Amino acid sequence: MVWTLFVTLLLLLARLFGGPLIKDYATGSEAHVDRLITTALIISVALVIDRLVRRFYWEGHLKQRRNRETPKLIQDIVTVFLVAIGITFALWWQEGLSLAGIAAGSIAIAAGIGVALQPDIQDIVSGIATNMEGSYSIGDWVTVSSEHLPGPVYGCISGSSWHSTYLTLEDGTRASVPNHLFTANVVINHSLPVGAKRLEVDVGFDSRLPADRVIDMLLGEAYKAVRHPGLSRSPDPEVIATALTSDAMVYRVRFWFFPNQCSPTVAKSLVLRALQDVALQNELPMPVTQIEMTSPPDIRDLLEPREIQEALTNTGLFRKALSAEEREALGSSCRAVELSKGSVLMRQGDAAVSMFIVLEGAISIAINTPSGEQQEVAISAAGDVVGEMSLMTGAPRTATVTALTRLRALEITRETIDGMLKKNPELFERFSRVLAQRQMEIDALANRRVDKRTVERDILSRMRAFFSRMTGGADPA
After folding, report:
1. Exposed site from 52, 234, 267, 339, fewest CB < 10 Å?
2. What pTM does this model have?
3. Which of 165, 193, 162, 188 is nearest to 177 (CA)?
């Protein structure tokens, strides 16, 4: 600033009072020297104006009063603009060149320079664009990802030039990133919008621990951890389960921090240390891979007889009505069937010939609406039973059942049930009690009040009448 004022003052004195000296030492070239001094004076005045703008606006007003630092690139652009105006004015005033001629010549020169310096100009234009649109500013924490970089670069913008933007990394070093990478790639600005940003850490514990208790312990410690400076109490931290393996349940702890007060690495460290403390205090076992040496299983036994017995045992109708010996006998008469997606197991209104216990897959249960369309009312999956009421009472099917996936199911036919009832007539009353309980549960969902004994007697009478007609014999007592 001082040297610029001093040079400007010397040029001004030479312009005003240097005429005699110019005549003595530049005889015959006074006019050329005079125009040269005037041109230099105009350019020097432009530089003085630039220094004043830097001193009182960039440094004084924005940085000291408003705490905003202007990128060096913007300051340099203003300097070039002021000097260009000074040169244009001097050529017009002293050399008599028209503004149109100066502009045409400048364009031609710029085109030649542009071809030679295309990569550098790309960086210059990119730097101007990002500064003008305000996508980031000095002091913002950003992540830059590009195929030209070894990995995502996280740092605080500390400055920018014609060619590069400078990032101060977490370790204190500075990275110089070409400006065109900021416009050609995705840049995440962690400082905008203003406020806390979310981070997350994953921890794993033994999969046999109750998930709700682990979540409560981790969440309680996360609430304590976010009281540290740099972390945010709002929004509240949260804990979710993200993965389940044979050995571990993985929990993700989400919390919020202020990028301008704490680095992500430090923030994660604070929370992880807190989670370790609660794990040690409560002696939460970490996942351990367990290896058990056993003989190869009999796959056919596992997937057929044993699977059938487990399905019958887990089905309330047979678990409550049949003894273990009777279930074993029933299992020998059943068969597992495989159906493709879209297969229809039963249609509404048809007569019942079998019931199904779902082993694998899912089925859709739909009823016909008055308009003739089908309306889905329920979804059943592994362990659920369909068709038992119609099979036991002889009533028409009340819904259409369709396989939503590839389906494996245990099919129990009417003949199988009839054979069991002939051998043991007491099963009529056992089955009727279980079916009555299920019917009452359905009535309760529909807000219908019924008497349990009445329902049992009704189902029992329908069962006896149906199986008596089917066999052509007398109504069993």
Report:
1. 234
2. 0.47
3. 165
